[in-house]
Amino acid sequence: MSIINTFDISTEAIINPSSVVTPVEGFPKIAIGIFGERTVDVVREKYSATQIDALYACVTMPIYKINFEGVDIAVFGCTLGGPVAVGSMEEIFIKGCEKILYVGSCGVLDREIAEAALIVPTAAYRDEGTSYHYAPSSDYIDIASASKLSTVFSGLKLPHTLGKTWTTDAFYRETRGNMEKRKAEGCITVEMECASIMAAAQFRGYEAYQFFYAADNLDEDEWDARLLGGFPQDAREKVVRISIETAVRL
Predict the structure, then answer these.
(1) Measuring CA to CA, how many Å separate 14 from each of 93, 199, 202?
(2) Longest dimension (CA), the chain
């Protein structure tokens, strides 16, 4: 059986999130998952964050709590890749969360998208493995939550771009040929978790949102690192502020 045909709803999972995680009293109903340890550091340093719990994968990932405009928010760092991102999400919802906003960088497939521009993905190409265990075979996962997130951004007067994303497991195998195919289909970004996260969230009925900020550029004769060559501290602080202000309005 090929990986794209491994979606199984006729039999039960052997291990469920509730088998290993229990609800946490008073756990914030809103959470922000951040791909980037240094960006999590901004939350700890600027928003009086206190650690309230942790996730345990290959490394310990602390879960912090902050309060913004009278709303408690859980904040946690995510490691790259769909499997850990989805496993963490499964456990966060069991702990008591009701909605998660994910934020991280992406590569752009269109050179006209400016450095640090905000992007809301509308569909994700499934060049990974996790999503095929949460949704029937298809090339793309449509992202049901994209329109609501875009509406919140518009209400905050945050310019942003809507478009398809390419989720890949292998960032060192983003070949020129595959990039051109995805671009021709309308993908404007590449990253490593969106298809996995959204397939799992929609399978479970979880409320999950995701946006990116543009980092490197693949739409040149040679790769342009852009922000991956050095992400300014003030830009990190801006991303954190946007995430927090958005989360409380979702």
Answers:
(1) 19, 19, 20
(2) 53
- Please answer whether residues 109 and 182 qualify as being in contact, where contact means their C-beta atoms are separated by less than 8 angstroms: yes
In angstroms, the CA 126 to CA 47 distance is 36
Closest CA to 250 of 99, 70, 118, 104: 99
Two tokens at 154?
């518009």
Task: Assess contact for 191 and 104: CB atoms under 8 A.
Answer: yes
DSSP one-letter code for 209:
E
Domain ranges of the chain: 23-247
Residue written as tokens 């060559």?
Answer: 229
pTM over 0.85: yes
CA distance 238 to 184: 32
Report which of 179, 157, 177 is spatially closest to residue 168, judged by C-alpha positions: 179
Nearest to 216 by CA among 229, 207, 205, 226: 226
Query: CA–CA separation, 226 vs 224, rounded Å?
Result: 6
Fold of 23-247: Rossmann fold (3.40.50)
Pick out the chain residues at pLDDT < 70: 1
Average pLDDT score over the chain: 95
Angular region, 62: left φ>0, alpha ψ -120 to 50, beta rest = beta
Render pLDDT for 87-119 as a digit per residue (tens, 0 to 9): 999 999 999 999 999 999 999 999 999 999 999
Contact 186, 122 (CB under 8 A): no
CA–CA dist 57, 20 (Å, integer) = 13
